[in-house]
Amino acid sequence: MSADPAAAEVVSVRLVVNGTPVEAVVPARLLLSDFLRHQLGLTGTHVGCEHGVCGACTVILDGRAVRSCLLLAAQCEGSEIETIEGLTASGRAVGVQQAFSRNHGLQCGFCTPGFIVSAVEIIEDPASAGMSTGELRERLAGNLCRCTGYAGIILAVKQVIAARHESEAYEPQGRAAWS
Fold it and tell me: Other C-beta atoms within 10 Å of 104: how many?
């Protein structure tokens, strides 16, 4: 029986993760989620379904929320990736995390990093100011939670959107106090 030749292939990748340039040699078929967790130690990127359904592995890739379990690390060559750790360290996720806590938007916490990463992308979208609850639910529909019933999560994100857009109305430079 012969071994799969593609399984032995390795590639070099260069990317920026949470503001830090990273260069690594990885198996050609290594998932981005596994690269982040096992090679970079960024375990806030959770792996749930491994099929892109649950959203627990959500990261921001070049400004867009994506499922890291559906991407190969090699596909991300030259990209910029932000994980929950990076969003927290930069302060971009802090307001969302506080709102989740205040509104009981988390329980076991397994899905929370993916929800927060998705919420940050939504909140930073200028169109979020006029977003209805239905539109917000649709934007978050790619993240699954088995504990909360979603009400606290939706309320938390709505509060942060409102606070951000309210503070931008008073700050001409667009610096928001929500983060």
Answer: 15
Residue 57 exposed, middle or buried by CB count within 10 Å (0-12, 13-18, 19+): buried
Q: Where are the domains of the chain?
A: 5-86, 91-170
- DSSP, collapsed to helix, strand or coil, labels residue 167 as helix
Q: Which structure tokens are listed for 148?
A: 């909360």
Neighbour tally for 169: CB within 10 Å = 9
Q: What are the phi and psi torsion angles at 9 (to 5°)? A: -65, 140
Mean pLDDT of the chain: 88
Region of 50 on the Ramachandran plot (φ > 0 left; ψ -120 to 50 alpha; else beta): left
pLDDT over 50 at 16, yes or no: yes
5-86 is a CATH 3.30.2290.10 domain: no
- Say if pTM beats, i.e. exceeds, 0.90: no
Q: What is the pLDDT of residue 175?
A: 41
**Domain 91-170 - what CATH class?**
mainly alpha
pLDDT digits (tens, 9 = 90+) for 69-89: 999 999 999 999 999 999 999
Pairing of strands 80-82, 58-61: antiparallel
116 or 1, which is more confident: 116
